[in-house]
Amino acid sequence: MESQGSCSVFDHVVRAPEDPILGVTVAYNKDQSPIKLNLGVGAYRTEEGKPLVLNVVRQAEQTLVNDKSRVKEYLPIVGLAEFNKQSAKLIFGSDSPAIQENRVTTVQCLSGTGSLRVGGEFLAWHYLERTIYIPVPTWGNHPKVFTLAGLSVKTYRYYDPATRGLDFQGMLEDLNSAPAGAIVLLHACAHNPTGVDPTLEQWEQIRQLIRLKGLLPFFDSAYQGFASGSLDSDAQSVRIFVADGGECLVAQSYAKNMGLYGERVGALSIVCKNADVAGRVESQLKLVIRPMYSNPPIHGASIVAMILRDRDMYNEWTIELKGMADRIISMRHQLFEALLARGTPGDWSHIIKQIGMFTFTGLNSEQVAFMTREYHIYMTSDGRISMAGLSSTTVPHLADAIHAAVTRVA
Amino acid sequence: MASSMLSLASASASASPSLSLHDNLKGRVKLGSVNFISCLPDKTSSSAKAKPSGRISMTVGVNVSRFEGIAMAPPDPILGVSEAFRADTNEKKLNLGVGAYRTEELQPYVLKVVKKAENLMLERGENKEYLPIEGLAAFNKATAELLLGADNPVMKEGRIATVQGLSGTGSLRLASALIERYFPGAKVLISSPTWGNHKNIFNDARVPWSEYRYYDPKTVGLDFEGMVADVKAAPEGSFILLHGCAHNPTGIDPTPEQWEKIADVIQEKNHIPFFDVAYQGFASGSLDQDAASVRLFAARGMEILVAQSYSKNLGLYAERIGAINVVCSSADAAARVKSQLKRLARPMYSNPPVHGARIVANVVGDPALFGEWKAEMELMAGRIKNVRQKLYDSLMAKDKSGKDWSFILKQIGMFSFTGLNKAQSENMTNKWHVYMTKDGRISLAGLSLAKCEYLADAIIDSYHNVS
């Protein structure tokens, strides 16, 4: 085989397009314009537009690095025990009967994605109904994760563009027609990309229907603490399901709420009927993980475990977390006011009604392309913007761009 | 599993009546009894995961778990050894299971350069933003250069696709996913024996595999003719999994001449070499020497897959840092391959962990730290060579049977294939509290000079008195 480009065994391998979400940052980085805005990936930015490492995280990291007794030995396949224990408490509540009854198995995984993938593969291997229902729309990576995990992906109605709210009727109808036992993906809070969450009353009805139909809930919890600013409030949806004694899966991510994006810290919990089942399930989760990456990375999980375990650090964390959530809410209000001030046509109240890091603007892909071209606004083509990427100084530019898009592009 | 039929009415007993739910569904939900037949697959005792077969309906019951039919999986044969070791209270116990380096005092070892790098990173106060899907650019550049040499034409021509992976395992898995998608039906040939997790990786990635002869128990050496014959016999365009150096579990590596012959037959059959490089620098103490096999293949202009790990050579086990490299015949092919590797990584974990990658990039990128690393690596490799010598000397001194134990000296790397069979290995554990894997593999990294005589006694006893 010649080395100089004549013939390759990879000739049939075509160039993949950039990932639609992460590719936004790639495109943003290439843009040479002095005024540009990255509202693509959901990574928190300060008012100064800088990434943020939480004080409490720096503190924890300092302690870890300076601890001379620490080693870098392989973690167990299921990850750091203390991290798993604390993560379960965080999402289910420290007084959760499911935890007390040892009915929960929690395994450390690579952030939200890794937890979803391991959970999906586990279900594909062991669960009897290999169909998962995902909301429309949902995070772009969800269908890929579950398809590659070996599940077949179907959808349920969720977002109603007419009201820019929840299509509750459609959601219930679609869940009702799902085959018994089907898996249902639920965003625990701060639905991505729409920011539209069911009310607690609606969650209760969803829960009843899911239990009635014997569907298996699989929660994606990537924003606990970010939606309302309260860790407990943001876990309510999960907790009402666990309280009824039924089974469910939960994928947790610490990327946003602890700002640990690049450390890839997360956990998969499976709440089972009893401790015996939980033990067997855990043993099979290990068989999924071992051929994927053997055991998870230690650094991020150690930071989280330390913070969750230490009363003072935990409290500091909740304050910093609320600070981030509050800044995002403030950006929502500023953007809303700015559009009102410009007299931008349309009802923009969804900006302040939606919850979490993202706003589903309702802009179409032509309008988005226009905003990128003319105003150097980088966002996903579905019209989603990350509020976390905005600041008081950049809100006017974004408002100008939206105004122009709405008035000049159909 | 017996089939059970349950009335749905009892399932909803705990739910409060929900008129609004009915209203919303406009009577489409049927409450009342719904019966299902459940037919769960037989539990198998093997560690293979059971796939359910056929059309199966779900039992909807209050107290039956959805996962009731799931069997308890056996412990991992390698990682499970350490678990068993921890549980043993005998003071003579010795952990020669997993390949993690230990000092003479049998303590885990964090390299000094790693501590220095971490302190530097802390001082700089770097952020924790997502890495790109392909990982840290500085790491990817450093790792490819380490593997092939910075002035290698492959590097200069941009013909290598490098994607940061989750240590060796994760990198092998990404490569397997690439093979499954782009070379459907192509087989991977793995050595007999090989690292226990290789077949799990290919199974889960749904890549078919078969074995080529490798270890010859008669010579406790390489069955070279068998290897060449089996590689030759494989269907054209197969992937041949090769251990770059320090073969795991045997410690037996081909000679440079044998590597040439292996490359010949791979080229003849248009196979694709697939290297697992987990011990570069650790085997001989020299990074360059341990990469000789890979560089030989690259020098022939071959397209190659190479999985790398920094678990052992930088002691970064728990940080999960490695890379998958694909050497292609053109820069364009490399770019395309890299884009597809990214497409496989994204639905697995989105992007890799930053910490370990930064450590490697810092160590390799700083000439002083890089020099210090090489020195520490020589020390680690040196300690293992010393331990091999002492074990050999102890065996020869204590064993009066005339058995030739010199294979201990000829084998290279962390592991030694003792030639003990399953029952003999079990005797090592049960009688002597020596923990090892059942294939007869011992990790010399877990052996101290002080324990060599004890181990020699155990091996001699197991070899001669147990069959």
From TrEMBL, chain A:
Cofactor(s) it depends on: pyridoxal 5'-phosphate
Documented EC number(s): 2.6.1.1
GO molecular function: L-aspartate:2-oxoglutarate aminotransferase activity; pyridoxal phosphate binding
Catalyzed reactions per annotation: L-aspartate + 2-oxoglutarate = oxaloacetate + L-glutamate
Pfam families to which the protein is assigned, alphabetical: Aminotran_1_2
GO cellular component, one term: mitochondrion
PROSITE patterns per the UniProt record, alphabetical: AA_TRANSFER_CLASS_1 (PS00105)
GO biological process: amino acid metabolic process
Keyword check for Transferase: yes
Top-level division of the source organism's lineage: Eukaryota
InterPro entries xrefs: Aminotransferase_I/II_large, Asp_trans, NHTrfase_class1_PyrdxlP-BS, PyrdxlP-dep_Trfase, PyrdxlP-dep_Trfase_major, PyrdxlP-dep_Trfase_small
Keyword annotations from UniProtKB, A to Z: Aminotransferase, Pyridoxal phosphate, Transferase
UniProt keyword Transferase present: yes
Binding partners and assembly: Homodimer.
UniProt family annotation: Belongs to the class-I pyridoxal-phosphate-dependent aminotransferase family.
NCBIfam families in the cross-refs: PRK09257.1
PANTHER family documented for this protein: ASPARTATE AMINOTRANSFERASE (PTHR11879), ASPARTATE AMINOTRANSFERASE 3, CHLOROPLASTIC (PTHR11879:SF57)
Further comment found in the protein's record: In eukaryotes there are cytoplasmic, mitochondrial and chloroplastic isozymes.
Protein name: Aspartate aminotransferase
The species this protein was found in: Punica granatum
TrEMBL record, chain B:
InterPro entries to which the protein is assigned, alphabetical: Aminotransferase_I/II_large, Asp_trans, NHTrfase_class1_PyrdxlP-BS, PyrdxlP-dep_Trfase, PyrdxlP-dep_Trfase_major, PyrdxlP-dep_Trfase_small
Entry GO MF terms: L-aspartate:2-oxoglutarate aminotransferase activity; pyridoxal phosphate binding
Chain ranges of the Aminotransferase class I/classII large domain: 92-459
Reaction catalysis annotation: L-aspartate + 2-oxoglutarate = oxaloacetate + L-glutamate
Pfam family, one: Aminotran_1_2
Gene Ontology biological-process annotations: amino acid metabolic process
KW Transferase (keyword) present: yes
Keyword 4Fe-4S: no
Keywords recorded for this protein, A-Z: Aminotransferase, Pyridoxal phosphate, Transferase
PROSITE patterns linked: AA_TRANSFER_CLASS_1 (PS00105)
Stretches of the chain forming a coiled coil according to its record: none
Segments traversing the membrane: none
Other facts: In eukaryotes there are cytoplasmic, mitochondrial and chloroplastic isozymes.
Quaternary structure annotation from Swiss-Prot or TrEMBL: Homodimer.
Similarity section: Belongs to the class-I pyridoxal-phosphate-dependent aminotransferase family.
Name of the protein in its database record: Aspartate aminotransferase
Organism: Punica granatum (Pomegranate)
Organismal lineage: Eukaryota, Viridiplantae, Streptophyta, Embryophyta, Tracheophyta
Name of encoding gene: LOC116187568
